Amino acid sequence: MPVSITDARAFVDRVHRHHPAPLGGKFAVAVARGEEVVGVAIVGRPVARRNDDAWTAEVSRVAVLDDQPNACSKLYGACWRASRALGYRRLITYTLDTEPGTSLRAAGWRIIGQTSGKSWSQPSRPRIDRHPLQMRLKWAAPGSDTTSAPTGAA
Prior knowledge:
Blueprint: H1 5-15, E1 27-33, E2 36-44, E3 56-64, H2 71-85, E4 90-96, H3 102-106, E5 110-114, E6 136-140
Parallel strand pairs: 3-4
Antiparallel strand pairs: 1-2, 2-3, 4-6, 5-6
């Protein structure tokens, strides 16, 4: 079901295990039990500049209430269908390397890379790390174009 970015952010802030809600997003989707929202996903521009090629979107947060079987997989599938309908060719997300990725695998996603888990802070661009510093796995939705964007994209 549709949900506003504002309502999705509030849900993430209440439910997500280790991250606050992202500041914004392109769109959000929700899964409900009856009239009660039991999970949300927020999709936005890729955080890493190298992925931001105008053809790629990123699932930045998924948050689901406990005891909601298959809700995460449903959200990942809905995010990919909505992204394709908007013209995106690739949808990515990241998980901590300690997370099993069961919902992503169930939705047909595959691992396409990993991060070092190091801080993005540099002397020329200092940052405050507000997230777990550990390796992450990079996932792509089924059928996502994993090549670089066509020339002239942006």
